[in-house]
Design brief:
Order of helices and strands: HHHHEEH
Number of domains: 1
Number of strands: 2
Number of helices: 5
CATH architecture: Orthogonal Bundle
Radius of gyration: 15 Å
CATH superfamily: Farnesyl Diphosphate Synthase
Strand content: under 5%
CATH topology: Farnesyl Diphosphate Synthase
CATH class: Mainly Alpha
């Protein structure tokens, strides 16, 4: 498997795990904003978690949960970075930032 295909497969698996986690939350504006923040990106951090876990014999389901958590934390850091008090960015990954799309 090539690196781009392995990265894509990992990103897809992590996105699926994140979607499952969001699906357990009640419908709300916060849930919608969280889903908005998680769209896009290469998923490199999640991939690195999955590969590291595989090297150390961590069960795949556990590794996937850890990878999803790392991707969620990264998404949060980008949301925070985009806020008006920080960089005040209007776009992230070609889409309106969370504070623009959801009125701060």
């Amino acid at each position: 498997m090539t690196f781009p295909s392995a990265l894509g497969a990992a990103a897809e698996a992590v996105a699926g795990r994140l979607d499952s986690a969001l699906g357990t939350l009640p419908d709300s504006r916060v849930r919608t904003a969280m889903a908005h923040a998680l769209v896009g990106g290469k998923g490199l951090r999640g991939f690195l978690v999955l590969e590291s876990c595989a090297l150390h014999g961590v069960p795949p389901a556990t590794a996937l949960t850890a990878a999803a958590a790392i991707e969620a934390m990264h998404a949060y850091s980008l949301v925070h970075d985009d806020l008006p008090a920080m960089d005040d960015d209007d776009l992230r990954r070609g889409r309106p930032t969370v504070h623009v799309a959801f009125d701060e």
